[in-house]
Design brief:
Length: 135
């Protein structure tokens, strides 16, 4: 009986770890989809990955795209965009991204995403720092 209980406990740990890995992979897919939309200049597609609170601040895809172009140039135009460490807490995921911009300079982005009522993840924010700088 104890062996069965231990096996059930182990399977629960592995299934929750697998679910967390699936959520992180899903969140990374959302970030990658937005990044690719930005590269293509597809404002509507990039905007579709923004959380409702972001859409309240930037109420149209062209306004959102202008903000990204002006405030997040290393994300908008880059040479590399690679995922780093991720963390998950409840319905939130934070994801670090290592970026080399169009000029060859290194940046660190921290994306935050929240799971929506429909189960999808949407980007709630992005902080961008030149690599080596601290907050």
């Amino acid at each position: 009986m104890r062996i069965a209980a231990v096996l059930v406990a182990i399977s629960l740990v592995f299934s929750s770890t697998a679910a967390l890995a699936d959520d992180v992979a899903t969140a990374q897919g959302v970030i990658r989809a937005q990044e690719q939309a930005l590269v293509r200049g597809d404002a509507a597609a990039a905007y579709s990955h923004a959380a409702p609170a972001i859409k309240q601040i930037f109420p149209a895809p062209d306004i959102f795209m202008s903000m990204v172009q002006n405030g997040y140039a290393p994300i908008y135009r880059h040479k590399s965009f690679d995922f780093g460490e991720s963390k998950s807490e409840g319905s939130w995921i934070s994801q670090r991204v290592h970026i080399i911009d169009a000029n060859g300079e290194a940046w660190e982005a921290l994306y935050t995403l929240e799971q929506q009522a429909d189960g999808s993840y949407k980007i709630t924010g992005c902080s961008l720092l030149k690599a080596g700088q601290s907050v």
